[in-house]
Specification:
Blueprint (H helix, E strand, L loop, with lengths): L43 E5 L4 H12 L3 E6 L3 H12 L5 E5 L5 H15 L4 E4 L15 H22 L8 E5 L3 H4 L5 H21 L5 E5 L15 H5 L17 H8 L10 E2 L10
Parallel strand pairs: 1-2, 1-4, 2-3, 4-5, 5-6, 6-7
């Protein structure tokens, strides 16, 4: 399967965060492969950043496994509607919830919307993120620093706190961290710092919630072709994106989504506090 995937990307750039999948060339691969197993039948999953990229691929994969979906997104209406349409084509419901996960009030209303629509919540995928490259720490303004942390890590605290009254034994919390949490990134110092915080958050929360039977794990993708890439980097940087990993190419969202499916199913019943690494072959110190 991977041998047929493109190894290079044409130069391109987007001027807004977190980016639009509709504007990307080529479009990311999001559709799940193989036959559905209905491993999430009856479950309800809330996915932040679920309109595009990794979140979209996870949503599609969960729908194929029988889950009912709620997708949180910022303002990428066209991407969100397309994802909803594709999920509904699998005979799965999909609730769209637009808003800013950096707001605790919004996170409260998002969880309430899920409970109003479905009456339960089984899987929380904290995936929404933004990044703003800077050549020097001196270029990172106080506003950018707060915005990055509020979107990438504060939101996880907000959503977990709001979800806790509704999560029961066997529920799953899955957080998206990054390979940058382990190897760093000189151009994404604030972003990488949030991703390192997510690793510590995952490990700490998993210990706190283990007695309640709630599993907390994370996924640390490497270079994946998502809207965040053309929205963050120049055309030249996009053209060389992902070529420095051992597999020699960027990954596609559908190559990451199976990790989230596994962590949401009974196959991961003896895993908590762990991080999976779909990163194209980079060796990281876990």
């Amino acid at each position: 399967m991977s041998e047929t995937r493109p190894e290079g990307l044409p130069p391109q750039h987007q001027t807004h965060q977190p980016g639009s999948e509709q504007e990307m060339q080529p479009r990311p691969h999001s559709a799940p492969a193989g036959e559905p197993g209905r491993r999430l039948a009856g479950k309800v999953a809330l996915i932040t950043g679920g309109d595009s990229g990794i979140g979209r691929a996870v949503a599609l994969a969960y729908a194929r496994e029988g889950a009912r979906l709620a997708i949180v997104y910022l303002d990428e209406e066209e991407d969100a509607r397309q994802t909803q349409k594709d999920i509904q084509a699998m005979d799965a419901p999909c609730l769209l919830i637009p808003g800013d996960v950096g707001s605790p009030d919004f996170c409260r209303s998002a969880v309430r919307a899920v409970m109003d629509a479905y009456g339960r919540l089984d899987v929380l995928v904290n995936n929404a993120a933004q990044q703003y490259p800077a050549q020097s720490i001196e270029q990172i303004s106080a506003e950018q620093l707060e915005h990055t942390f509020r979107t990438n890590i504060f939101s996880m605290f907000y959503l977990v706190k709001e979800a806790m009254p509704f999560l029961t034994r066997g529920a799953r919390i899955i957080n998206t961290t990054s390979v940058t949490a382990y190897r760093g990134s000189k151009h994404l110092v604030d972003y990488a710092a949030t991703k390192g915080a997510i690793v510590a958050f995952t490990r700490s929360l998993s210990q706190q919630l283990a007695p309640a039977g709630i599993h907390v794990n994370a996924v640390a993708p490497g270079p994946i072709w998502t809207p965040l890439i053309p929205a963050s980097f120049s055309e030249e940087e996009v053209a060389s994106f992902g070529k420095n990993v051992p597999l020699g190419r960027p990954g596609q969202p559908d190559e990451v989504a199976p990790a989230y499916v596994f962590l949401a199913t009974e196959g991961a019943s003896y895993m908590t506090g762990q991080v999976l690494h779909p990163n194209g072959g980079e060796i990281v110190n876990t």
